[in-house]
């Protein structure tokens, strides 16, 4: 059962940060306003515009006119670029070859190419901006090696090295994960930001389920036999942050089924990413269960087009903490984000051994480079599930005669109300060890109470002229009416005086 429900796999593609650097050519179709809650693309669209931009490490995008923006990996399967008022997203192209002799499937990922029909661009902003389909090609990649070979569902490349400017960089081979042992030096102690921080102090214990006796976290969800953890966790983060933003414990029950059925950026019951749920909600808003329907645990045809004028709730800036994948893994920064704005989605790696036993330490899941590769921009932690952090707790722990104070994240899962060691839908995961990769990819979002908001474009000369002429015409019309009224009243008064 667990293998089915904690799949995060959107596609089997595998690309890394260095492999997408270079000069990209993007062909764009005609921009249109979506007529329902899906933006499906035809691979044979007619190109209306072509854009060129360069991606540089760690997250800078620069177009042919010199304008700059940002980019981020979406885990290892897709890429998102925000540049020049446009927001691009495309998945990487791949092929699958059955290997019958070993009962495996070989996956070749092409990191310089988009996946057909899984590539879009839309105007930046909130509430049904105009969309277009795209074709994206890295015409001048920085690396020579931009194709990875993996065995499905293997987590990393078979390639044993990459080459940059004639220098070879070797990757450590992916082997069995190592158990995170109690007492290992905690990561925050090695980070300058944490060690010199002198601002307000965080509480020793904090839980959004009990803040002055009030809960800002909906009751745990059950995703059933559907790989919809990405939709469950992100929608629950949104409901919690709605409550925190408005300082209320009342909340609209968002429809997870709406996200599973209608979000073209994800794969329904086959997986997805929290950031892409946010992109969909930024476009269309999220409907409530009352307006769309309750969760069924299966993917259905999207019927949101019949509910275009129903209540929709909008969120923005749904992205990895720090703005790009790999930017921030400091637990203290994660604590502040949770403390200030509410529960937060985190990507984790779930196994059938330690996680199934609710072990708070789990695996050391990072994939590192060898020591001579420290200058490379490279980040990767294997993940396959999304949950939400609702708080943390500090406890005194004794192991092998050694006593120390340990802090644990409190996560809420989407495997039912009675899951976990306390039978309450939650468990503890050690903080500062990156146990289960919990500190590798936190995701944020923020509620927009004003709803349909888009930045106003600057007015051109024609628009200004039209407004001025409109004002002058309106003023002339009003003056004419007033003059006519005064003339009529004067004529009437003169007539009355003559009768007198």
Automatic annotation (TrEMBL):
Keywords: Membrane, Transmembrane, Transmembrane helix. The chain crosses the membrane at residues 467-489. It holds the Pfam family CathepsinC_exc. Tetramer of heterotrimers consisting of exclusion domain, heavy- and light chains. Residues 202-446 form the Peptidase C1A papain C-terminal domain. Its cofactor is chloride. It comes from Hexamita inflata. Belongs to the peptidase C1 family. It comes from the Eukaryota. GO terms for molecular function: cysteine-type peptidase activity. Thiol protease. Has dipeptidylpeptidase activity. Active against a broad range of dipeptide substrates composed of both polar and hydrophobic amino acids. Proline cannot occupy the P1 position and arginine cannot occupy the P2 position of the substrate. Can act as both an exopeptidase and endopeptidase. Activates serine proteases such as elastase, cathepsin G and granzymes A and B. This is Dipeptidyl peptidase 1. SUPFAM superfamilies: Cysteine proteinases (SSF54001), Dipeptidyl peptidase I (cathepsin C), exclusion domain (SSF75001). GO terms for biological process: proteolysis. SMART domains: Pept_C1.
């Amino acid at each position: 059962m667990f293998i089915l429900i904690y799949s995060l796999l959107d596609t089997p593609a595998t690309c890394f940060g260095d492999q997408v650097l270079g000069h990209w050519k993007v062909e764009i179709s005609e921009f249109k306003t979506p007529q329902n809650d899906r933006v499906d693309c035809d691979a044979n669209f007619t190109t209306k515009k072509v854009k060129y931009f360069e991606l540089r490490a760690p997250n800078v995008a620069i177009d042919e006119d010199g304008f700059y923006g940002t980019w981020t990996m979406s885990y290892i399967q897709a890429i998102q670029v925000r540049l020049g008022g446009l927001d691009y997203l495309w998945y990487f192209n791949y092929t699958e070859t059955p290997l019958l002799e070993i009962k495996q499937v070989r996956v070749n990922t092409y990191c310089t190419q988009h996946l057909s029909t899984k590539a879009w661009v839309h105007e930046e902003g909130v509430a049904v901006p105009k969309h277009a389909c795209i074709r994206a090609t890295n015409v001048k990649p920085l690396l020579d090696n931009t194709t990875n070979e993996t065995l499905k569902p293997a987590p990393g490349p078979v390639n044993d090295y990459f080459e940059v400017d004639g220098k070879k960089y070797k990757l450590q081979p992916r082997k069995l994960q190592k158990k995170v042992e109690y007492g290992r030096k905690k990561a925050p102690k090695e980070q300058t930001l944490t060690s010199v921080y002198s601002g307000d102090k965080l509480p020793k214990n904090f839980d959004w389920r009990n803040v002055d006796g009030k809960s800002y976290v909906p009751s745990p969800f059950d995703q059933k036999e559907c790989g919809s953890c990405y939709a469950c966790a992100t929608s629950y983060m949104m409901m919690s942050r709605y409550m925190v933003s408005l300082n209320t414990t009342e909340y609209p029950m968002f429809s997870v089924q709406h996200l599973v059925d209608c979000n073209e950026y994800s794969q329904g019951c086959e997986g997805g990413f929290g950031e892409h749920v946010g992109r969909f909600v930024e476009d269309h808003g999220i409907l409530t269960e009352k307006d769309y329907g309750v969760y069924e645990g299966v993917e259905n045809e999207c019927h949101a087009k019949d509910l275009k004028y129903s209540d929709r709730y909008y969120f923005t800036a749904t992205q990895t903490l720090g703005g790009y994948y790999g930017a921030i893994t400091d637990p203290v920064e994660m604590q502040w984000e949770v403390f200030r704005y509410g529960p937060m989605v985190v990507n984790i790696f779930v196994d059938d051994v330690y996680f199934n036993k609710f072990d708070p330490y789990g695996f050391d899941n990072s994939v590192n480079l060898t020591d001579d590769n420290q200058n490379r921009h490279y980040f990767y932690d294997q993940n396959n599930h999304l949950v939400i952090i609702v708080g943390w707790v500090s406890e005194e722990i004794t192991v092998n005669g050694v006593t120390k104070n340990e802090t644990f994240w409190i996560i809420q899962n989407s495997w039912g109300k009675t899951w976990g060691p306390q039978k309450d839908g939650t468990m503890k995961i050690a903080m500062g060890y990156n146990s289960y990769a919990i500190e590798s990819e936190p995701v944020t979002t923020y509620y927009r109470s004003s709803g349909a908001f888009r930045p106003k474009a600057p007015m051109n000369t024609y628009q200004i002229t039209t407004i001025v002429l409109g004002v002058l015409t309106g003023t002339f019309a009003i003056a004419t009416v007033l003059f006519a009224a005064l003339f009529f009243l004067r004529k009437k008064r003169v007539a009355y005086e003559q009768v007198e």
